[in-house]
Structure formats: structure tokens, C-alpha cells
Amino acid sequence: MSSIDALFERTRSENRAALVGYLPAGFPSKDLSIRAIETMVDAGVDLVEVGLPYSDPVMDGPTIQAAADVALAGGTRIRDVFDVVKASAATGAPTVVMTYWNPVERYGVERFAADLAAAGGAGLITPDMTPDEAEEWITASTAHELSRVFLVAPSSTDERLAMTAEAASGFVYATAVMGVTGQREQTSNLAPELVARLREVTDKPVGVGLGVSNGAQAHEVAAFSDAVIVGSALVRCLLDHDEPDDALAALRALVADLRAGVER
């Protein structure tokens, strides 16, 4: 059983959704990104997504783009991402990397899988990699016992939902809205239907992301999903505060609110 499988077994026994938190490695700095992740886990995040900063995102909204720009300007490289993963995994929280596929391909798929596993990483989320194009990654991830988290969207056909769920491990990432990432005033009304369609083809855990920004929304999403995924709202805590202590305090307060939401 992988660390992600064990996490979902535990949260299901506790009759709650898991709380998943995303932050880019190297933002606002390498050291502060590690402190921020440690703060998130201490405040209640169950699973950590470490973002690999990318210069040409197609799915990220302005908040995460701004954070990635800061990380890249600070010199963040893939080696730094693995250092952040190692520190995150040391907290005891299963830790995955979220990245577009080009950096993995340039680094070397087998090499990336080996180094991610060596850092204690539990898997990889690949927003622009579909299972029917992922033969090399499926081979490498299997060899290094890494989870493969693929994305589905409201526009996915039933056939594609089934194919994606079959190839995924750890959990299936359901993007709750069409469009780029970012905080929203309300959660998508497409999300429950998408999760229900996934339930028809798989019993693997389903995490819902894109838009959750507070405990009330987390509670709403937790009612029909296995995991509530939060990114932009957490990043915003660090963007909005110049002083590290203030940023971490804001982050801790938000995570506490989100965790209370998934437990209500």
C-alpha cells in the first residue's frame, strides 16, 4: 500500500475528505517554501502538492503564474524541487509533484522518477499528460512505485473517464471548472456531476480542485469528493504578505479554516 493509499484509507475511516494543499517550490524562496509547507501540514493539510515552476503554463491562473515567476527569477531548478519534496515528505505527509510534462521529458523520464522516489516523493500530477500518451511515464512510475495522478474535466467523455481512472493510481484529479486555476466566489456546479460520473467507472479516490478558497467551500466539496484540493488561495497568503511571519500566520489560519471545513 502506498502512502497515498494509506492516507485515503485513514480519511475514509474518519468519514471525511482529505485536504490537499499546493505550493510552488522556491516561492517566495526555497527556504520559505519549505517553512510554508511545514506550516500547512502542521495546520491540517493531509497531502502536499509541490509545484514545479514553469515558464509557459497553460492551466495556471494569474496567482500561481505570479508565484512561479518569482520562483524562476530566484533561480529555482528541478534539483531545488526535489529538495523541497524531501523536506515535505519528512513531515510525514504524502508529497507529490505537480508539473507540466516538458520539464520531466527534458530532465529524463526515468531519471526524474528515480530522483523523485529518492527524495521521498509519492507520485506525480501531470495536468497536460494523458494516459494514452504516457507509456514511458507509466513504466518509470511503476518501477519506482510512484503514483500517477491524471486529470479529468467536465468535458471528458465517459470512455475517457474510464480510461483515465484505469491508468491512474493514488487518486483521480477532477478539475471542477473549465478554465485556468484560481479562487472563485462559488464552487462549480459541474463538479458533483463529474464526480458522480467517475464513481460509475472507478472506486479509486477522487480529488476535486480549482477554485476552493475557504472552509465553507471546502465543506461543500468534501460532501461529494474524497479530497479537497486547494492551491491559489494558499499561494495568495504568501503573495499578500511581505513579512514571512505574517505570511505564515495567514497560511496557518486559512489551512485551519479549510481543515475545519472538510471535517464538519
TrEMBL record:
<comment type="function">
    <text>The alpha subunit is responsible for the aldol cleavage of indoleglycerol phosphate to indole and glyceraldehyde 3-phosphate.</text>
</comment>
<keyword id="KW-0456">Lyase</keyword>
<dbReference type="InterPro" id="IPR011060">
    <property type="entry name" value="RibuloseP-bd_barrel"/>
</dbReference>
<dbReference type="InterPro" id="IPR018204">
    <property type="entry name" value="Trp_synthase_alpha_AS"/>
</dbReference>
<feature type="active site" description="Proton acceptor">
    <location>
        <position position="60"/>
    </location>
</feature>
<protein>
    <recommendedName>
        <fullName>Tryptophan synthase alpha chain</fullName>
        <ecNumber>4.2.1.20</ecNumber>
    </recommendedName>
</protein>
<dbReference type="InterPro" id="IPR013785">
    <property type="entry name" value="Aldolase_TIM"/>
</dbReference>
<comment type="subunit">
    <text>Tetramer of two alpha and two beta chains.</text>
</comment>
<dbReference type="GO" id="GO:0004834">
    <property type="term" value="F:tryptophan synthase activity"/>
</dbReference>
<keyword id="KW-0057">Aromatic amino acid biosynthesis</keyword>
<dbReference type="InterPro" id="IPR002028">
    <property type="entry name" value="Trp_synthase_suA"/>
</dbReference>
<keyword id="KW-0822">Tryptophan biosynthesis</keyword>
<comment type="pathway">
    <text>Amino-acid biosynthesis; L-tryptophan biosynthesis; L-tryptophan from chorismate: step 5/5.</text>
</comment>
<comment type="similarity">
    <text>Belongs to the TrpA family.</text>
</comment>
<feature type="active site" description="Proton acceptor">
    <location>
        <position position="49"/>
    </location>
</feature>
<dbReference type="Pfam" id="PF00290">
    <property type="entry name" value="Trp_syntA"/>
</dbReference>
<keyword id="KW-0028">Amino-acid biosynthesis</keyword>
<dbReference type="GO" id="GO:0005829">
    <property type="term" value="C:cytosol"/>
</dbReference>
